[in-house]
Design a protein that fits this description.
The complex is a heterodimer of chains A (216) and B (302).
Chain A lengths: L1 E9 L5 E10 L4 E5 L6 H8 L7 E6 L2 E2 L8 H6 L1 E4 L11 H12 L3 H14 L15 H13 L5 E5 L7 H16 L3 E6 L11 E6 L2 E2 L1
Parallel strand pairs in A: 3-8, 3-9, 6-7, 7-8
Antiparallel strand pairs in A: 1-2, 1-4, 4-5, 9-10
Helix pairs in contact in A: 3-4, 3-5, 4-5
Chain B lengths: L1 H20 L1 H36 L4 E5 L5 H13 L3 E7 L1 H12 L2 H5 L9 E6 L4 H13 L3 E6 L2 H42 L1 H9 L4 H44 L11 H26 L7
Antiparallel strand pairs in B: 1-3, 1-4, 2-3
Helix pairs in contact in B: 1-9, 2-7, 2-9, 7-9, 7-10, 9-10
Classes of the chains: A alpha/beta (216), B alpha+beta (302).
Chain lengths: 216, 302
């Protein structure tokens, strides 16, 4: 589903974030990406969504070479991905409901159908009762869950999460991990980055560990 | 098809909602556009009216031949025959001096003055309609007719109308220049409005890009906004012009009565009104398009 081959990423200014990364993630697999902050986790996720492009090597998503995609094809790649951003990127000029509605509007969903889908997604993350609230009034954990709802409303085959448990206390973090596991059970491919190893101790899931731009 | 239509209508609704969300700002923009467009549109309407007046007055160019006040019936008959035989003359109507006086009495309200006259000061006259209407041929014909025996004065009735027409031509050019300049102003106003909108909606644009919005999707609401703002500005301009013409009609009616004529200003015709609205809509769209093309590429997700 996702395949990296000898991927190098150097930022303007010379900082080398990734140095020759290669790995494969199969369809339906759930993988954790760990490492200290600055190890290149965010860069790796950005390469998958073509927010950044590799300097060399190839990034394949669904056997499409993402690094070589034209600007016009980019939106259609991203519609197949659900992305949970480290900084949430929620919109505070609209309600919780409308935040989750946005991906469906972008894809041109029918009005009635999209209402159902938004409520289903909000229900999944336990925010159904707060659909009319402005996200500014939500707690950190709730915002994180809202971000998840927006990422899954489109029912993407691949879910990318950048530090989803970043600033949350252990109880919240466990809650969010439980949500991810339920997606895994229905066949979604997940790649979750975290610097917080404690949340994974019990799980037997695969781990990719980055250190200074190299896979351990 | 209906789904695509519903989507576009949704974007249009959102654009209108956004416009009326900032009531004062939106209204001011529409007012600025309306006033800017009303200047050339109003001048154009005035020119159209003046042109209508000229056409009405000089529609069929005529040459008046005034005879000497002491002309006899024989002279008149002879002249009538000569005119009928002239190759460039289409027809000639004889206006007897008594009839001319009667007309003058009726149409100008100078009846009191005329009654007080000792004798009729008006000469007999022929009103000649020529076959050809262009200015040069008319001038030649007028010269020929002036030479005929018994003719005291040959006058081209529409000479002043031709001069006025040339003046109107000049006016049209002035309106055109004004229209071009103010159209540029409209495009600039829209350009700037959309630029500010893009800046305030930076987050939305960035997030939309990240979750798979095409450029078309991001561009559409701004283009619709620009087009709507232009259209509403056009409607405002139309309203300003129409109201001004109606307002001018009252004093103008009194004025024209003094000159014994009835002249009213007509509002913009249906075709002209439609052109004004479509043109302003297009200019708004163009300003938005230029702004979007210039500014959207600067917002790249990080």
């Amino acid at each position: 589903m996702i395949s990296f081959t000898q991927v190098h990423k150097r930022y303007p200014g010379g900082y080398e974030a990734l140095k020759g990364i290669s790995f494969d993630i199969a369809e339906g697999e759930m993988v954790f990406l760990t490492g200290h902050s600055g190890a290149g986790k965010s860069t790796l996720l950005k390469l998958i969504a073509a927010i950044e492009r590799p300097n060399s090597g190839s990034v394949l998503v669904n056997s499409q070479n993402v690094g070589a995609l034209s600007g016009g094809a980019l939106p259609y790649l991203r519609r197949n991905l659900g992305i949970i951003f480290q900084d949430h990127k929620l919109l505070f000029d609209r309600s919780v409901f409308d935040n989750v509605l946005l991906p469906l509007q972008i894809c041109g969903f029918d009005h009635r159908e999209s209402g159902k889908r938004v409520r289903a997604a909000l229900d999944k993350v336990g925010l159904l009762k707060r659909e009319k609230t402005n996200p500014i009034a939500l707690s950190g954990g709730e915002r994180q869950r809202l971000c998840i709802a927006r990422a899954i409303v489109n029912r993407p085959a691949i879910l990318l999460a950048d530090e989803p448990t970043g600033n949350l206390d252990a109880a919240y973090a466990q809650e969010i991990m439980a949500i991810f596991k339920s997606f895994h059970q229905v066949g979604v491919t997940l790649l979750i980055s975290t610097h917080d190893v404690s949340v994974l101790q019990d799980s037997g899931v695969r781990r990719l560990t980055l250190k200074e731009g190299v896979l351990q | 098809m209906t789904r695509a239509l519903a989507l576009h209508l949704g974007v249009l609704r959102a654009a209108l909602r956004r416009m009326f969300a900032s009531k004062l700002g939106g209204l001011l923009n529409i007012l600025v556009i309306g006033i800017a467009l009303s200047l050339p549109a109003g001048m154009y309407a005035l020119l159209q009216n003046a042109q209508g007046l000229v056409a009405q007055l000089s529609g069929t160019p005529q040459i008046s031949l005034f005879l000497a006040t002491d002309a006899q019936a024989d002279d008149i008959d002879a002249l009538r025959k000569q005119l009928a035989a002239h190759p460039a003359v289409h027809g000639a109507e004889f206006v007897a001096r008594e009839r001319a006086l009667e007309q003058l009495k009726q149409s100008t309200g100078l009846a009191d003055v005329i009654v007080g006259l000792e004798k009729n000061p008006l000469p007999d006259a022929f009103v000649v309609s020529p076959k050809q209407g262009n200015a040069q041929a008319l001038d030649i014909l007028r010269g020929e007719l002036a030479q005929l025996p018994g003719v005291e004065l040959a006058q081209l009735d529409s000479a002043w109308a031709y001069k006025l027409e040339a003046l109107l031509e000049f006016g049209h050019l002035a309106v055109l220049i004004l229209a071009v300049l103010l159209s540029l102003a409209l495009v600039a106003v829209t350009f700037n409005t959309i630029r500010l909108q893009i800046l305030t909606q930076r987050d939305e644009i960035e997030v939309s890009r990240l979750i798979g919005a095409t450029d078309g999707f991001i561009r559409r609401p701004f283009l619709y906004f620009g087009a709507m703002q232009g259209l509403l500005g056009g409607i405002m301009a139309w309203a300003i012009v129409t109201a001004s013409l109606l307002l001018l009609n009252r004093p103008l009616g009194e004025l024209s009565q003094l000159y014994a004529s009835q002249f009213v200003l007509h509002p913009l015709s249906f075709g002209d009104s439609l052109s004004l609205l479509l043109f302003s809509l297009y200019l708004g769209w163009l300003g938005a398009w230029l702004s979007v093309a210039r500014h959207l590429s600067q917002i790249e997700p990080r």
